[in-house]
Amino acid sequence: MSESIPCPPIHRWLAEPLPRDVAKSIDGLLSADDVRHVAIMPDVHLAGPVCIGTAIATTNLIYPAAVGGDIGCGMAAIRFDASAELLSDEEAAAAVMAGLYRRVPTRRHSAATMPGALPEDLDAAMLSDPRLDKLKRRDGRVQFGTLGRGNHFLEFQADQQNRLWLMVHSGSRAMGQAITAHHLSRIDIATGPLPHLAADADAGRAYLNDVEWARRYARWNRLAMVAAVSGLLSELFGIEAVDTSLVETDHNHVRCETHFGRQVWVHRKGAQPARLDEPGIIPGSMGTASFHVAGRGCREALCSSSHGAGRKLSRVEARRQVSARQFRDQMQSVWFDHRRERALLDEAPAAYKDIRAVMRAQKELTRIVRELRPVLSYKGV
Fold it and tell me: pLDDT digit of tens for each residue in the chain (381 aa)?
């Protein structure tokens, strides 16, 4: 009689019961080769073969689906030397919104706003395939310093002392998607329903090289937007960003870490690292609170936490269930572009889980440093 292979340990921090499709997806992950530990965050929701809000550890196999296509997607926040009252009147808010459209495109730069070469750190580094390098100099350049669509956003916020903050959520744009698609297309389908690579093989090393490049691209992309917004506020109001207040984190990656006394490959998909006292950012939704946090270093969570509130409704369900009037009611204290009201229904606050319930569910994982409320929200459609 053959010995059964034990399932890996799984730990859950849930704000609500798991939907059946999410539970099924997690079960599939538990049976995947070389998965040694699974941690489920309270913002977990379905997104492909591996749910968003998941952290897993392997010893040698690398699962691109457990990283996601938007490699390096993450957050940046910075405080301005100003009160949030600066954006309390419609004229000031309209000037800022108009400036954001000019300086922070959501899709790609025009010829007039095209940046120069990519930062040297990105331009000089080689990707694993000449086609990806060619894409880097084309799409990578025209999308550098752009926000993206979907749940990506740029938001002005007020902290509990009513100081003005900026929060940016964006990733590696088309480059991350292209890198993921390229490597998935090269994996032998015999690896099974969840394609994987060996970290110590040429294909695995190539993927890991490209992941690190995409993470750097995503970080520089966020910092480019922070710089663009800082320039805008300096021009409009004569105020400056407080550089020492900058907080950064990313929540879609795979990297080698030490857990439980051994080196493992930790994959985080919509889960931010939360080592002891590590700074983090957990956004709510367009109309709800966000939080700056510090990690508690929870071993069972692979020193991770949620990356946000997490979707409660799919985009299709949100458009079906949330009316334009309901959306306006949920956003009544936040400036946004009313011309895009209907296009933003799938990002309505009602489409997301209760951020306070999520934060309560992960008290073991992270502690709140600062609470912020939204003042002005800028999103692509």
Answer: 344 456 789 999 999 999 999 999 999 999 999 999 999 999 999 998 999 999 999 999 999 999 999 999 999 999 999 999 999 999 999 999 999 999 999 998 887 677 667 999 999 999 999 999 999 999 999 999 999 998 999 999 999 999 999 999 999 999 999 999 999 999 987 667 799 999 999 999 999 999 999 999 999 999 999 999 999 999 999 999 999 999 999 999 999 999 999 999 999 999 999 999 999 999 999 999 999 999 999 999 999 999 999 999 999 999 999 999 999 999 989 999 999 999 999 999 999 999 999 999 999 999 999 999 999 999 987
Give the CATH architecture of domain 10-378: Alpha-Beta Complex (3.90)
Helix (H, G, I), strand (E, B) or coil at 227: helix
SS3 273: strand
116 burial type by CB count under 10 A (0-12 exposed, 13-18 middle, 19+ buried) = exposed
Domain ranges of the chain: 10-378
CA dist., res. 52 & res. 42, Å (int): 10
Q: Which residues contact 215 (CB under 8 A, 6 or more apart)?
A: 71, 72, 172, 250, 253
pTM across the whole model: 0.95
Check: CB of residue 106 under 8 Å from CB of residue 146: yes
Cβ contact 245:79 at 8 Å = yes
Six-digit token string for 117:
């070469």
Are residues 344 and 315 in contact, defined by beta-carbon separation less than 8 angstroms?
A: no
Q: Which two tokens stand for residue 151?
A: 């749940």
Q: Which residues are catalytic?
A: 307
Task: State the burial class of residue 11 (Cβ atoms within 10 Å of its Cβ: 0-12, 13-18, 19+).
Answer: middle
Sign of the four-CA dihedral 332, 249, 273, 269:
positive
Across the chain, where does the E strand assignment appear?
10-12, 35-45, 52-58, 61-62, 74-83, 153-158, 163-170, 197-198, 241-250, 252-259, 262-269, 271-273, 279-282, 290-295, 304-306, 366-378
Quickly count: other Cβ atoms within 10 Å of residue 297's Cβ.
15
Fill in the DSSP letter of residue 129. S
Residues forming a β-bridge with 258? 263
Task: Write down the residue that tokens 């800022």 correspond to.
Answer: 96
